[in-house]
Amino acid sequence: MKKKLLLNAVMFTFLLPTVWAQVTTPRTPSPGASVSQAIGISKVTVIYSRPSVKGREIWGALVPFGWNKQGFGFNNDAPWRAGANENTTIEFSHDAKVEGKPVPAGKYGLFFVINKDNTGEVILSKDYRSWGSFFYVAENDLMRAPIAVVDHAMTETLSYEFNSSDKNSAELALNWEKKKFPVRIEFAVDNLVIANATEELKGPIGFNWQGYSSAANYALQNKINVDQGMKWIDQAIQQNKSFTTLRIKSGLLALKGSKPESDKIMTEATALANENELNAYGYQLINQEQKDKAIEIFSLTTQRYPDSANAWDSLGEGYALKGDSKMRSKVLKNP
């Protein structure tokens, strides 16, 4: 009997952690949050916890100015953890630049410093799984960059947001109380797209003409990697010689300065075009301020599709945009 009681006691002891474990409940205060932003084909993600002001003095008090000694016996100089609870983290899907400094793809701890004069720093640490600033080690910083902290509308609960985005960059901003910490993030979007296309075309996408055509068209529209774009579009034309593929090749030839060859290819493309393609090409020419050439294409469309009201309407609009109201009226009256 004594052995049985001893065995039950041992089993109960091992069960205690399971029996007394806590169920998952909402984290209060400072709930967790995340925000992401696409820049080109890249993505930036910030994961953080959101403290609230709650009437407290924040800057120079709850968040001390400058670098500060940590408690719990660590006694290390550390920046602010840019949130609450665990480290705030920032993750980049591709190599980036933060405030002009190179940052390899990956996840990092995000820290800030604020000084009395509203100068500050943004810091990325290779330690991203720590708890706050208590285990901060300066030697593990990937980068530091100065920033200008600016006054901002009252924000009760700390938040991150992305602003002022363009093709290659966006501004990440931490907003809390009446301060904003802006950080510029950039990607070499064109280089990343071309490199990614090169890899994708080695896979299933490389078995169809649309993949090569779309890659070449990106080179055309962004006026980059023209020689590589020519190789891609030639590959597409081998699989599908069409208005779409020939138009792209014509555009790339024009970028290379080969206008006679570009015009020749475009004439060949026009011969293969359907009504919608001709109509779209005409309006593209109008957007390029080539109104006479656009009228020529619209006229060709009416010759091929004389029963199309849309073709005649486009021709009339072409004359109107050129300022030739007489021809516009003639075309619309006698299609």
Keyword list:
four-stranded antiparallel sheet; 335 residues; 2 domains; six-stranded antiparallel sheet; 40% helix; alpha+beta; Serine Threonine Protein Phosphatase 5, Tetratricopeptide repeat; elongated
The end-to-end span amounts to 109 Å
Shape: elongated
User: How are strands sequenced across the largest beta sheet?
Assistant: 1-2-5-8-9-10
* Poorly predicted ranges: 9-14
Brief summary:
The chain has about 325 residues and is an alpha+beta fold. It has 10 helices and 12 strands.
Chart the SSEs and their pairings.
Elements: H1 2-19, E1 32-39, E2 42-49, E3 68-69, E4 77-78, E5 89-92, E6 96-98, E7 101-103, E8 106-114, E9 119-125, E10 141-148, E11 150-163, E12 169-186, H2 189-200, H3 209-222, H4 226-239, H5 243-255, H6 259-272, H7 275-287, H8 291-304, H9 309-322, H10 325-333
Antiparallel strand pairs: 1-2, 2-5, 3-4, 5-8, 6-7, 6-12, 8-9, 9-10, 11-12
Protein described:
The protein is α+β, with helices and mostly antiparallel strands. It has two domains: 27-187, no CATH class; 190-333, Tetratricopeptide repeat domain (Serine Threonine Protein Phosphatase 5, Tetratricopeptide repeat), CATH 1.25.40. Helices cover 40% and strands 26% of the residues. The protein contains ten helices and twelve strands. The chain has helices at residues 2-19, 189-200, 209-222, 226-239, 243-255, 259-272, 275-287, 291-304, 309-322, 325-333; strands spanning 32-39, 42-49, 68-69, 77-78, 89-92, 96-98, 101-103, 106-114, 119-125, 141-148, 150-163, 169-186. The chain has a six-stranded antiparallel beta sheet with strand order 1-2-5-8-9-10, with no helix packed on it. A hairpin with a 2-residue loop joins strand 1 and strand 2. Helix 5 packs antiparallel against helix 6. The longest helix has 18 residues, at 2-19. It is elongated and about 85 Å long. The N and C termini lie far apart (109 Å).
